[in-house]
Give the backbone structure.
Amino acid sequence: MSLKTKIGLALATTAVGATLAGAGTFALFTSSATNTGNTFTAGKVVINDTTGHAAYSSTLHYGNLAPGDAEDATITVTNNGNLDEWVAIKDITKAADPAAPAGTPNIFAGAYPLALTFTEGENAPVKIAAGNSTTLHVHYNFPSGAGNEYQGAQGIATVNIEAVQARNNETGATPTGPNSWQ
């Protein structure tokens, strides 16, 4: 190798070394910040029956039914949560009265049982704003064909009401109910 080539390689090696040494001492100014106090709280969907009594306890024939009796009752439901919610009657559970004396017939059984219904149209889902109330309707009908086998018959009914958040659970400009009850 010639002297010129050796000097050229020495200079190139020195230049590469200087470049690497300079890169190793390169620095940037940096800073960081924190944003505290970001508390997230989930809303609540809470309903309460604010009727103040069983729906039928104040009706005309509740404790003294005769064949052919029929009547409507209302249940007032209040949204005690902090989210708007959709509310509707889910179903009505009926059973024999466990507190009735042995041998007491079940008013919800047999050929002419007491019928408790809620009309889907009347009880379509209702949107209730937080802190507001709505009224739901239930109807009973004791068929006129009920005979002596129903004398003294008793039963217990529970109206099951469900609620679900409204926000992010409805579609359309004028929603008529939730997308999902889940």
User: Anything to note?
Assistant: The mean pLDDT is 78. The longest strand covers residues 85-95.
